[in-house]
Amino acid sequence: MTEQELHQMRRAKWRLTGHPVRTLEEAATFLESVGFCLMYPMRPPMPLPTFMGAFVGADDHLPALQHAYADARATEATELMVRMLRQRAAYEANFFEDNNAFLVSASIFPYFYALVGERNPKLAPTPRPHSDYSQLACDAYGIIEHEGPISRQKLQNVLRGGVSAAGLDHALGELWSRLRITRVDYKSSEGAFWDVLQRWAPEPVREGISLSVGSSLSALLSKYLECRIAADLEEVETFFANFVPRSRIKEAVNALLATRELSFVYVGKHTLLHVTPPRAERVPGPTSLRTAD
Question: Using an 8 Å Cβ cutoff, are 104 and 112 in contact?
Fold first, then answer.
């Protein structure tokens, strides 16, 4: 495989070759194919597909998150993305850039939950020493659990004490990054709506709780390489280090190599990882067939 061939294969899979995603069915099919994607490109770039690129059908002159408000294409793409959230064809997470949605397909989401979600989500977060949650995050969670789905605007009004917009956004980010809450809708007049993830998506949460970190990481590694076609080991480790220690990533990669679920492929001068393609069945040639007497 040449580097140009790899580049073209990625562009085709990421819907950047002039065939844009415009319907709900097309959007869900795209997301299931790649497994997960960013809403907008990041700076510096992260080597993942973007929903914005798939919606436009190209990757040139795409708006970044900071400039999306001034781009009509971003408004249309967001409306389509929100429809996927409402249908539970996609789930949104806060793993990277704030407010730049990381979209995960319905079939893949339980594996991410197994890596970063709470194993006992029925217990409300508390601001104990060394906790991941501030007092404001815990207060916000209590209101969302009682009132949700609730808009950010109404949530700020219900919270007492003159909570600032920035402070509330930070608190919501604490809860969202641990998959305690999720955005489930958006209305231009009220902004994003939030709900407790366990209530909004009980089946994926239950499935995620039942999965081990090891098996989930292996499944996500394979999906990442399917999405990228092939990738350098360092790229793989850099991406998954956002969720688990690098030592676990190396163990999972080595185990998949040992079972030949992953293998190496030469791309130009580089040796990359990819999902081992299925072996083609050997069709007997004419000379190997026995003829009847």
Answer: yes
